[in-house]
Amino acid sequence: MIRRWVRRLAVIQGLFALAILTYLAAAAAGGLWSNGAPVPPPGEDTNRIGLFQGTLHTDLLIPVTPDVRARFAFVQDAGVPVLDPQAEWLVVGWGASSFFATVGSVSDITAHTLWRSATGDSSVLRIDVAGRIEDFSRITLLALTPDQFNALTDAILDSFAQMADGGRIPLPYPGFTPTDGFFAGRDRFHMARTCNVWVSGMLARAGLRFGRWTPTNYAVRLAFWRFVPQN
User: What are the respective helix, strand and coil percentages of the chain, to the nearest 5?
Assistant: First the structure.
């Protein structure tokens, strides 16, 4: 009896490991698979956005132009000082509600958080601002045409859940910095639609050529290497 259970446990562990390897392989393939967007003509970029990657998560960095400041002015009410003249970048991240509500660092991630995120969770947008950035060594920059930049901000705004009057829904999460704020998102988070998939989806909505499916940070890096011209 004990040997039978040991064999079953070994089979389960083997299948679990195989599932993880299959997922990671598919993520790499998805990062190298083009989303089909055309390559924009050179010389038309007037805005540069950034991708900032942590251990598991990718944030978008959007330059705070006058139009961006006006369109995202509602985040000021959640404590995000986007109207401050010192704010030069809007930091936007999308993810699972359970993650943003309970995790301060990677060491805080629990099995329950992982399970809920993997199987399905409501989504949240985390918004913050940054001042002047002198060191871009950890930030990947992408050049956008004016039309692409406008499409990107439209796509980000479409990611917010809205109330009947069109207002966004702030969430009382503790936050990671003194200046960040949280809002309910529209779509659900799960293994096939992670924070990094949201990033590639936003870039696709903007008309940028990028990886079609990028559930991991590594898939995002592969997509950038494969599809974004290096200057």
Answer: 40, 25, 35
Under a CB-based contact definition with an 8 Å cutoff, are residues 153 and 207 in contact?
no
The pTM of the full predicted model, rounded to 2 decimals, is 0.87
- DSSP E strands in the chain: the ranges are 47-53, 58-63, 89-96, 121-130, 139-144, 170-171, 181-189
What gap in Å lies between CA 170 and CA 109, rounded to an integer? 23
- Per-residue pLDDT tens for 20-44? 888 888 899 999 999 988 776 666 6
Spatial contact of 80 and 179, defined as CB atoms under 8 Å apart: yes
Q: Cβ neighbours of residue 156 under 8 Å, at least 6 residues apart? A: 60, 62, 92, 202
User: CA 147, CA 69: separation in Å to the nearest integer?
Assistant: 17
224 in helix, strand or coil? helix
